[in-house]
Amino acid sequence: QVQLVESGGGLVQAGGSLRLSCAASGSIFSISVMGWYRQAPGKQRELVAHITRGGITTYADTAKGRFTISRDNAKNTVYLQMNSLKPEDTAVYYCGAKLISSVALYWGQGTQVTVSS
Fold first, then answer.
1. β-strand partners of 98
2. d(CA 34, CA 24)
3. Under 8 Å CB-to-CB from 61, ≥6 apart: which residues?
4. Integer Cα distance of 19 and 94 in angstroms
5. What is the pLDDT of residues 38-58, one digit of tens each?
6. Sorting pLDDT into bands at 50, 70 and 90, what band is 72?
7. How far are the Cα atoms of 9, 10, 37, 52, 67 from residue 55, in angstroms, in the given order?
8. Which three-class secondary structure string do you get for the chain?
9. Longest dimension (CA), the chain
10. How far is the C-alpha of 57 from the C-alpha of 53, rounded, in Å?
């Protein structure tokens, strides 16, 4: 089992920056991929970025060039650095983790990001 706790969300002006953190605990050595998803009101949850155990990253088109996903293995933590934020980035951001032997994702509770114009 894996437990995930997100932090770092908040209110920011357009063009500003935020850094989200996701701390993992439990069966951390069984994690193959960690990533960030977001869900805006009335919309489906969508991928923002993924990072593998080896540090290979994948970004949604809307995140490329503005967001950076990274990890700190010593702290069992994944980060999402978000720059040049736009109002359309407003959403609840969820941390997810997938185990090597499972297709299912474990989810954190989410952290609200609100970008004002």
1. 33, 105
2. 9
3. none
4. 13
5. 999 999 999 999 999 889 999
6. very high
7. 23, 27, 18, 5, 15
8. CEEEEEECCEEEECCCCEEEEEEEEECHHHEEEEEEEEECCCCCCEEEEEEECCCCEEECCCCCCCEEEEEEHHHCEEEEEECCCCHHHCEEEEEEEEECCCCCEEECCCEEEEEEC
9. 43
10. 10
Which amino acid, residue 27?
Answer: S
CA dihedral over 74, 113, 69, 48, signed as positive or negative = positive
Say how far apart CA 70 and CA 50 lie, in whole Å.
9
Tokens of 92: 């609840």
Let me know how long the chain is.
117
